[in-house]
Amino acid sequence: MTSPRAWLIWIIGIFAYLVAVSQRTSFGVVGLEATERFHASAAEISFFTVLQLLVYAALQIPVGILVDRYGSRAMLAGGGILMGLGQLQLAFADNIPGGVLGRVLVGAGDAMTFISVIRLIPLWFAPGRVPLLTQLTGMSGQLGQLFSVVPFAMILHSAGWTPAFLTLAGMSGIAVVLVLLLLQDLPPGHPAPLPSQGLRATGISLGHAWRQPGTRLGLWSHFTVQFSGTVFAMTWGYPFLISAQGLDRGTVSGLMSLYVAAAIAAGPLMGRFVARHPLRRSTMVLLISGCTAAAWAAVLLLPGRSPLWLLAVLVVTLAVGGPGSMIGFDFARTFNPAHRLGTATGIVNVGGFIAALVSIYLIGLVLDVLHASGFSRGELYGLDPFRVALSVQFLLLAGGACAIIVTRRKVRRQMAAQGVTVPPLLKSLAKQRKLVAERRRTP
Fold this sequence. Notes:
By secondary structure, the chain is an all-alpha fold. It has 2 domains: 1-185, Growth Hormone, Chain: A, CATH 1.20.1250.20; 202-421, MFS general substrate transporter like domains (Growth Hormone, Chain: A), CATH 1.20.1250.20. Helix content is 82%, strand content 0%. The protein has 19 helices and no strands.
């Protein structure tokens, strides 16, 4: 039976992660205000988030090693302190270098959080509970995004820039205090984990994980389906919906809340699909990427502004990409031994954030080029320039899908050598329909 102490540890962990996600996504709400406050171009505004994501992605594998060495408690506290300092810096910054420094600190602290929380779960709970609690932990992050969409945005527009970011800094402070006072790395009597491996052994393990085709399939899966939602939620969603589509802030907050709700609802459904159809995981990833491309094409090619229902369809489609990207971690789990799982997970987690930062920067760069050329007719965030700029996502979606197909072939050849054959999709569907029909005929 799980002890009340274990549940307390988990609740503190997910609160720390919720706070981290609210810090991560807060800048997506202030794109227009940041442009005015820092007198910044679109490319300069995108650089805030690009650098933040670059720091996050670059620290994934090093943070995994540090968590093994120093424990979740120390890393969660350190991450919370860094995020709090970053938001304090941003609250009073009035120029681009000061603002960028704040976002770098936020990115570094955010990078320490998710891995630290996930590491606590198998130490405090029975193996049978771990998958569900891991899924629920990931879903809790969506509530952090909801905070940045609604309460943070309300504080920003009613009290101003500085009080809004001071509120975020205060949330980080609360998380740090709870972690230091109440969180423990190990249950009483639990043996301490083995000491972490040295640098040479870490490098060897990293090489083995990368050479495993299943790891690379996870990387490209995460790369392809995660980035577009991140781009939308963290940077360009608000300017696109408000300035280009002409929506009021209340409607935009509603769409962003729909994004969060759709991601939460899709998580368990995606988990059930993966559990029931493990040989069709890559097919689901390709389906999600195709739906993402189709949704963006419908919005960007439609003459004039899009109807609200179509924007809602786009938001829901992008939201599904978050839970869909978790399939990448399942590839890492099933194709790597336990002692290499942390390294493989770090490799996979880099994919989507690298794609996001490249896309965010390119969109900002294209917007600036179009503005300077006169194409935008003086509207930096007009509908026509956004049509062109947001289209750069199709390059990443197509490239990622091609990489998935190529890597999947290598994975399936490896599986075939081990005696596991993946039947053609149509043949498998026909067999399933036949089984369902037979069950219905059985009295």
